[in-house]
Specification:
A hairpin with a 5-residue loop joins strand 2 and strand 3. The protein has 289 residues and is α+β, with helices and mostly antiparallel strands. The longest helix has 29 residues. It contains five helices and 13 strands. Helix content is 19%, strand content 37%.
Length: 289
Amino acid sequence: MIKKDTTHTTSTASEKKPVDLLPTQPSRPAPVKVNPLVLTIIAVFALMATIGLTSGITAWLVRADLQNTQQIAISDQPVSQGVAVVEKVADSVVSITTETAQYDWFGRQAISSGAGSGVIISEDGYILTNNHVIDGADSVYVTTTDDKEYEANVVATEPDADLALLKVANVTSLRAAELGDANDLQVGQDVYAIGNALGQYPNSVTKGIISGLGRPITAVSSGLRGNLQEFEDLIQTDAAINSGNSGGPLVNADGKVIGINTAVAGQAQNIGFSVPINRAQDLIQRAES
């Protein structure tokens, strides 16, 4: 949780509404209930309509051009940009879970858990994430795309940028992401957000564009205290960012990490914010040294 003394802040009519730091302990959404009978009726009706209206035409096309239809193969279809991006970076994205011991008024202990995301920046186990994902946690665990779980140590943090560097011990062959340059970004270019959406959908991918650059925000944490913190020079994107995506990468069309997803505007739609990867240079250099 981000901590900041708010006792000296004042409000004015023109003050911007704070945006929300992505919660790290999302609630599970209720399953959508669909009557199977409805689906059956729709499917049968659609099938009947297709047979009744187009069977003659379809049969004629198949008879007249059977050779050509057999030559069409899925492999002939071009691979989309998004597929290429995901193939390049997906194995470098990890899911993060945290455990924190808490005590009630009677001294009874309870363990609270949180969920977030991170991105591997070195083969020997250095991982970037948000500071608010691991802040105050007693234990931090990362899970890779091959379902291997590791305990991670917090090596360094930069609360002012909401960044943290984790280290997994005794690994040498993790898939490190390629880092880009946020100084080269342009409004309107395609980007992809990847992360552990809602804490239960690892490596969820959403696509959007860069909506703005150099954005200042006031972020509020999702905890009971709702602490406020100011951030400057963030990337704004309309790629869907959900709770659990905190700490996951924002990636450009070349599959290079250009930001770390950190906050969303709760009172709006499709307004998310990422910390430019250049802000993490001190942490990255520490991992490389």
